[in-house]
Structure formats: C-alpha cells, structure tokens
Amino acid sequence: MTTMTHSSPATRVSDEARQEGRSRARRRDALTASAFLAPGMIAFLLFVIVPTLGSLALSFFRWDLFDTPVFIGVDNFTRLLGDQEVWSSLFVSLMFVVLGVIPVTMIGFLLAVTVNSRMPGVGILRVFYLAPILASSAVSALIWVNIYQPRSGLLNEVLALIGIHGPNWLSDIVWARPALVVMMIWGGLPLVILLYMSGLQRIPTDIYDAASIDGAGKWRQLWSMTWPSVRSSTAVILVLQIVGFLSGSFEIALILTQGGPLGQTTSLALYAYQQAFQHNDQGYASALSLFQLLLLVVIFVVVQLIRRIARSRR
Q: Of 69, 82, 158, 260, which is least packed with CB atoms within 10 Å of its CB?
C-alpha cells in the first residue's frame, strides 16, 4: 500500500511566509549595506576616479594653468620616455621601496608578536607603537626635522655621547635618502602592526601548546608556525607598503628636503609635482602621474602572480 503525503494549505502558506520574510530580510540587509558603502563609494568616485580621468585627458594637452590648453597628442608621453630626470626619479622611488618595504614588514611583524603577547605592560607598548598613526605627515616631518638637526638634534646628541660626530642628515648626499626611509618606516609601522595583529589573533592557541609539548622553542614556533600562518596578511602588507613608499615619499621629501641634495630624494611623485607647480606644465605632470599609476598596477600584478605561483607549489 502506497502512502502519499500532501502538505496542507496552512503549511504551504507558512513556508511562503517564511520565504517572503527571508527575502525582505535580505533586501533590508542589502539596503543597509548600500547605505554604509555609499559615502565611501561617492568619495572614491569624486576624489579618485574623476581626477584620474581628468589627468588622463589633460596628459594629451599642454597647459600652464593660465592660457587655453593646447592639444598635443602623445607628445607628453614621448617626452617622458626621453627625459633622463624621469628615470632618475624612478630610480629614487624604487630605492625607497627597496630600502623600506622589507624592514618595515619584518619589524612590524616582530612588534606585532610582542604587543599580541601577554607580557606585563603590553598595553603601554601598544600605545607607544601605534602613536605615529595619529600624526599627519606634516607633523611627523617637523618632529623628524628636529631629530635630524645637525647641531641640536636628538640623533646627533646621542651619537656625540659615544664619540661619533653625526652628519647633516638631510643635506648629506649619502645619508639624506636613508634618513627619509627611516622616517617612512616609523610612519608605516602602525598599519603593519595592526594588520599583523588581526592575523595573529586568528591563529588557534592549541597549535602552540602542541608544539611546546613536542619541544619546539619560542623562536622555532615563531618562524615555523606564526610566520607561515600570517602569509596572507604579509601579501596585503607588501602591496600597501610598496604603494606607500612610492607615493608617501612625495610628502616627506617635499617637506624635509625639497628633493635634495642633488636630486637624491626626488621621487617620481615629487618630480611630477615640480613639473606641475614649479614649471606650470600641467599636461606633462599628468603624464608623469599616469606613468606612476601604471607602475603601481604592474607591481600589483607581479605580486599577485607571485602569490599564485607560491600557492600552486604548496
């Protein structure tokens, strides 16, 4: 005998009501998310997308801010390729990246491990490590100008205590660039620490207990367990810091050295600024800015390819 089960009209109505309720909840959540995202998306459109499109259009013109723009086609880009100052400033930008990105990443990782621990006084350490994020670039630059003062600066006074005569850091052709890199590392550490702390707090504590039972020491756990566990955070940090050292060097160099001495701190972004506001060549400055944007896109693509290759080999 076959038994057939039929849902009653009341059951069907109840199921439809639940589905309608879930649909209303999803629509409500979507509207709420859109309301929160809208200000950021509007700001991104107005302050990133629109200026980028404007810069793209302006790069095909010659304009000095006063006269009528003159269309010159791709002349600004051909000039860019033959401009020796462009390649010198690009080399300076890449040197900032080479000298700064790896140190800020490794130092930030070690400091994040420290402030994520349960050692006494860790709350004070967190405030101390994260304090630079509260200061603007201008305020930070003024602080470091005083530190780097050749006669009364804190750094040279400390060196004098051990019998070393410190140089004029910001005017020395050898030390100006490393001095700016140190300042940018200091300014970049808070973000690195925060990102690593978010990754560290997702690591289960059980694996450390098991490693301790197996005889693994603290350093062994750090490099064999903790560091591989935050690999995804490291990839994000590397991309952000590369962008930061390429573009952030503009503000720091403009305030501290104006690109000197002898162009040793003139990054690509600073060179574009000089072309725009010192030589009033807005079209060429726009072409330089687009060239830097293309460089950032290439770096991002290369980092993504490296991540995929590394992931495929696991």
A: 82
> For 139-193, how does the pLDDT look when each residue is reduced to its tens digit (9 = 90+)?
888 888 889 988 888 899 999 888 888 889 999 899 999 999 999 999 888 889 9
Given CA atoms 111, 117, 119, 125 in this order, what sign does their dihedral have?
positive
Evaluate whether 265 touches 271 at the Cβ level (below 8 Å). no
Q: What is the 3-state secondary structure (H, E, C) of 62-84?
A: ECCCCCCCEECCCHHHHHHHHCH
Indicate yes or no: pTM above 0.90: no
What are 85's two structure tokens? 């100052």
The verdict on 293 and 154 lying in the same domain is yes
With a CB cutoff of 8 Å and minimum separation 6, the contacts of 246 are 93, 96, 97, 267, 268, 269, 292, 295, 296
Cα dist from 243 to 4, 111, 176, 271, whole Å = 66, 22, 21, 17
- Per the document, the length of the chain is 314
The range of the structural domain enclosing residue 166 comes to 75-312
